[in-house]
Amino acid sequence: MSTRLGYVYGIGAYLCWGAFPLFFMLLAEVDPLETVPWRVLTALVFCVLAVGAARRFGPVLAVIRSPRTLGWLAVSAVLLYVNWQIFVVGVVTGRIIETALGYFINPLVTILIGVVVRKEKLSRLQWVAVGIAGAGVLVSAIAYGQFPAIALGLAFSFGLYGAVRKQASERIDALTGLTVETMFGAVIAVAQLLVVLALLGHLGAFSHGPSVTIPLLLSGVVTAVPLLLFGAGNRRLPLSRMGFIQFLTPILGFLTGYFIFGEEMTAARWIGFVAVWAALIVLLIDAMRALRPRRRRDGPEPSPATGEIATRPIP
């Protein structure tokens, strides 16, 4: 049951993130250096209200009293803030397809972290898929003709975030973790707003009318919901499997950039993306093969990444 819930939460999170370009294009008139701080601050307000409604201030205080867990969440908060800033800059500057490339690279980073750091094992077909996707990403990156800073920044910031967050999320629930993360993020947000104010002499985020102000105020809720889903899924699934689910986000981002916003796709880019999609087909074949033996026997559910019996408790 724990693993099945992990899939539900993980897929829900990445579907939400896949729709983010559509939402943040509503805020294109706002300076991205203001968008992210207000996004963090409104997310903190949402989390505090949610903690209060659930009467879960006790777990938050317990985390604050634990230096080790607090340290992990401080690091994950910085990585998350960096990821948000890079993504918003990419979307509002018309580089949605490059953000999609970043999230195609991201699962590879997550998978490799799972293998190298946590010693998670991959099947033969999963290694084949990693190789195909890696080749496709390389071709796509070369096709840009310049260093893909947006893509690589997104990939490594969120890949590292997932690994760091897992260290803390095995000890705390998703809402508690996100609340503490946004507390740390709020410090960065306020500092960034003060820098913008000092440089520009004013803050103009809320001067664009209700069509911009309302989405900006809702950005905290829109941000928090998929992160809560991600935190819940990350507790229940191996990093390698979360890495495979992450492909949902770049697929939706690519479709949004190409079909809705009309961003250009060269022949070389097409080759790269088709290679990545071929890797997804390999993963699908591997998943179907893994399901067959499970249907033929009764007993504990195997871990999706290793085939071994899952031992983590059901919370």
From TrEMBL:
The chain crosses the membrane at residues 7-28, 40-58, 70-94, 100-118, 125-143, 149-164, 184-206, 212-232, 244-261, 267-287. It is a multi-pass membrane protein. It holds the Pfam family EamA. Residues 5-140, 150-284 form the EamA domain. Its main location: membrane. InterPro entries: EamA_dom, EmrE-like, RarD. The keyword Transferase does not apply. Belongs to the EamA transporter family. PANTHER family: ACYL-MALONYL CONDENSING ENZYME-RELATED, SOLUTE CARRIER FAMILY 35 MEMBER G2-RELATED. This is EamA family transporter RarD. It comes from Leucobacter weissii.
